[in-house]
Structures are given as C-alpha cells and as structure tokens.
Fold:
Amino acid sequence: MPTYRYRCAKCGKVFEHVEHVAEHEAAQLRCPKCGSEAVQHQPTQFFPRTSRKS
Structure:
C-alpha cells in the first residue's frame, strides 16, 4: 500500500499515512499534533521498482 504525505493547514505538521489507493479519496484524517481535520495532501515523488534492468 502506498504511503501518502499530508500537511496540517492549522499547525504546519507534516506527517505520513499508509492507506489503500481506493481509500485515498475518502480519507478523513486528523493531524496527530493538534487534532485538526484541515489536512492537505502533499504531492511526493514516485519511484517505481521493476525486476528487470533497462
């Protein structure tokens, strides 16, 4: 399952959350520091892993 990075709009805390791709759109997260629901998804880089070399 992918790990998504979030940032709290209230206190600025950046945290990560592991969730299924289907759950990502409906996720209702709270900031672990202040408990605010005003969290925003922070885009991150994606590095796919393959078994063969290119």
